[in-house]
């Protein structure tokens, strides 16, 4: 009999309806803290509610990784129905979620391959989709083999991020005071990117959003020429119209590539802010 495999992730991942409804996909929510109250991302806090908090509350909300106990409980429950699991999480350089998952699986004594995606959002989604595909294709499922294949896939992912509000990135500890000051004074619209080590950094300093969009298109065209593009995803922070406009521009410059539009999760919006546009893509090579 074919071994059953569960897939586990956290709520920084973008999960379309088909993944949310998938019987073998489980999500552990990131905790959002606002005015001493804790909310579980995607369970008792929607993105609309979060943006209301950001606009109206005095303090900027913060995030906290899921506890080790939360992962331990999930893995103990999964042991009843699954032989093994693959967990794919937000970059360990951006959150302690990966470490909590590792500790949780050890305490539950369950066979889990825990993968550091070295990224966020749709980059995680792409790995989950690939993992499910590999499981379906395999006659004799081996989680280590599949996990190693997914770790190879990580190198084929790129991202370009236009942050909606630098203030939130600064207050969340993701940007230095000097970078924040320069960005505001010079009205810079920086293009950020999560690098191959999973660290968030400055890719380009641009003086306007229009020029920043043009630069992202240039980077996508360059990536397509060098490695070929399989898919492009536009994630947005409550600016769907802007995301749709960007989709049309990308289609003209990089034709014949599937494009997906989705919304960043509340746990990411805490740091990136309303108005954020992030482009993810997976290369062929």
From TrEMBL:
Keywords: Coiled coil, Lipid-binding. GO terms for molecular function: lipid binding. Residues 203-249 form a coiled coil. It holds the Pfam family DegV. This is DegV family protein. It comes from Paraliobacillus quinghaiensis.
